[in-house]
Amino acid sequence: MTQAWLWIGVISMALGSVFFGFGAHNAKSERWKILHTLNFFICLIAAGLYLAMALGLGVNIINDRPTYWVRFLTWFFSTPLLLLDLTFLGRTSLPITGSLLGANAYMLATGFVATVTPKPMSYIWYVTSCAAYLAIVYLLVKPYRVEAERQHPRAKQAFRKLVTVHLVLWTLYPIVWILSPEGFRAFGQGSETMFYTLLDIASKVGFGFLSLNTLHTLEQTRESVRETLMANG
Predict the structure, then answer these.
(1) Is there a domain that residue 232 lies in?
(2) Does any domain span residue 215?
(3) What is the residue range of the signal peptide feature (predicted)?
(4) Of the four, 28, 137, 183, 215, which is 20 to 30 A from 121 by CA?
């Protein structure tokens, strides 16, 4: 079961990278090219590291259980690009962007320590990682969204949807961790791999499509404003 889900991850991320790669090549404007390129590298990084896991690399027996530590490499390199998707669309200021990237790096570093640390000390690091995630939640719900809606006043609903989907998907990761063999052992490694793979596909490939849809909405809104101004001018 574990191996099958890893290969599903490889194929899904590879297909996503092909789609976004062609999109970047055929982009109709620089903004579309940038967004497609970000999503291309998000999927490409994930495809490569899922391939490593499927081939039995990046896994060691830690605390008497097989641990795919390479999974954290996937997240460490791809999640900053996911956040850049958001900040690019929102035209986010450098202080907020830097704060998001810093909190994300701290969240993943402490999450990795929690994964390789024996219980019960691992729970201390887990809580620390969750605290960093709450900082990301605050930054996205408050300063990021407020700034994005100020930049795009006619697209408030699009950004609320973007932030909501992002936070729902990312909130499920620590839930899977605490219920997995690293935490309370509510399910086994096969189910853990299944849940992480599905979340990765949704938060990388799926969220990539949502980011493209958001840019489409922003451009439609801008065009609508231009037509209104011309009609009244």
Answers:
(1) no
(2) no
(3) none
(4) 137
What sections of 26-120 are H helices per DSSP?
A: 30-54, 70-90, 94-116
Q: Per DSSP, what are the bridge partners of residue 61?
A: 66
Of 82, 91, 30, 43, whose CA–CA distance to 211 is shortest?
A: 82
pLDDT (tens digit per residue) in 85-136:
999 999 999 999 999 999 999 999 999 999 999 999 999 999 999 999 999 9
- Mean pLDDT (the chain) is 95
Helix (H, G, I), strand (E, B) or coil at 67: strand
Residues spanned by the domain of 122: 1-207
Instruction: Provide the whole-model pTM.
Output: 0.94
- What does the alpha-carbon distance between residue 166 and residue 169 come to, in Å, rounded to a whole number? 5
Written as six digits, the tokens of 67 are 């641990």
Cis peptide before 120 (omega within 30 of 0): yes
- Core vs surface per residue 44-64: b (16+ CB within 10 A) or e: bbbbbbbbbbbeeebbeeeee
Q: What CATH number does residue 78 fall under?
A: 1.20.1070.10
Find the angle CA(36)-CA(112)-CA(132) to the nearest 5 degrees.
75
On whether residue 38 sits in a domain, the answer given is: yes
| Chain length of the chain | 233
pLDDT tens figures, 57-67: 988 998 888 88
Q: Contact 173/199 with Cβ under 8 angstroms?
A: yes
Which tokens belong to 216? 């489409």
Q: Which of 214, 202, 212, 204 is nearest to 162 (CA)?
A: 214
Q: From CA 41, how far away is CA 201, in angstroms rounded?
A: 14
- Count of structural domains, the chain: 1
